[in-house]
Amino acid sequence: MIPAFLLINFSSRSRIPLALPLFLLWPLVALFALIVGLLWLVLPESGARFRGFQMARGGLALLWHLSGLTIDVHSEEDHRVYMRFI
Amino acid sequence: MSEERLQILNMLAEGKITADDAERLLNKIESLQAGDSPPEPEKTLPEAPESPRRRPKFLHVHIDGDKGEHVNVRVPLALIRTGIKLSTVLPSEASEKLNEKGINLADLKGMDTEELIEALRELTIEVDRDEGESVRIYCE
Fold first, then answer.
1. Helix (H/G/I), strand (E/B), else coil: B1
2. ipTM confidence
3. pTM for the full predicted model
4. Residue A68 distance to chain B (closest CA, Å)
5. Nearest-CA neighbor of A39 among A52, A20, A58?
6. Cα–chain-centroid distance for residue B75?
7. Strand, coil or helix: what is A20?
């Protein structure tokens, strides 16, 4: 599932993460997937085309599997970097 | 995506709950799905045959420093699987640059990712140093 939100916090004081609505980008992702699919059908077959298509498909797959990725780092001075895709 | 998870995301999108609440609820659901429910009392019945083990979903990396700093990373194994596949279609120039650094991506081409994920199931690495630093890597 493509992540719907990115919870993010780069603060040393606030413990409440900010929720970025990634679902607003879903239409763009769908359009990109559509373009990749159409190019695959229309463009003449060649090595470069095949590699390009594979990379685009891989990029979409990476985006699809981002959900669940969590990075939480606390420094000794209590600075925090927190990211979570949900 | 499970119905509970979708419900939480909807409530977050509608502003009914805060991101903090959503995170707590999602953690709760994940811990329940991971089988962290309280242990049942011992039964005297004969043991049932071992159920098929669950496939691990996440690679966890916990690092605790000696000065109180810590790192906690959770990577979906599906992301690793996809990343391995994607690395095999990198441009040859990028592969050559990595090769100069001692990283040979050609090795990944012949690798069975499912076999790798299966092997990761049993993976647990724990390193504890005298200074109080510790590293723990495991799959769950």
1. coil
2. 0.78
3. 0.69
4. 6
5. A52
6. 4
7. strand
Partner residue opposite A86 with nearest CB, options B26, B69, B71: B26
Query: Looking at the predicted structure, is the pLDDT value of residue B31 above 80?
Result: no
* A41 CB within 8 Å of a chain B CB: no
| C-alpha–C-alpha distance, residues B12 and B62, integer Å | 28
Give B97's contacts (C-beta < 8 A, 6+ positions apart). none
Long-range contacts at A39-44 (CB < 8 A, ≥ 24 apart): none
How far is the C-alpha of B99 from the C-alpha of A83, rounded, in Å?
31
Q: In sequence order, what E strands does B15-57 have?
A: none
CB contact under 8 A, B89 and A18: no
Distance, CA of A7 to CA of A83 (rounded, Å): 6
Name all contacts of B103-110 with Cβ < 8 Å and 24+ positions apart: B108/B84
Task: Return d(Cα B68, Cα A25) in angstroms, integer.
Answer: 37
Average pLDDT rounded to a whole number, residues B34-46: 49
Q: How many CB atoms lie within 10 A of CB B120?
A: 16
Nearest to A70 among B65, B69, B73 (CB): B73
Q: Does A46 contact chain B (CB < 8 Å)?
A: no
In chain A (86 residues long), the average pLDDT of successive 10-residue segments reads 89 79 92 85 73 80 88 86 92
Contact B69 A69 (CB under 8 A): no
Note whether A79 and A14 are within 8 A (CB): no
Q: Name the one residue in this structure whose structure tokens are 């990343």.
A: B83
User: Per DSSP, what are the bridge partners of residue B137?
Assistant: B61, B125
Q: How far apart are CA B95 and CA B72, in angstroms?
A: 30
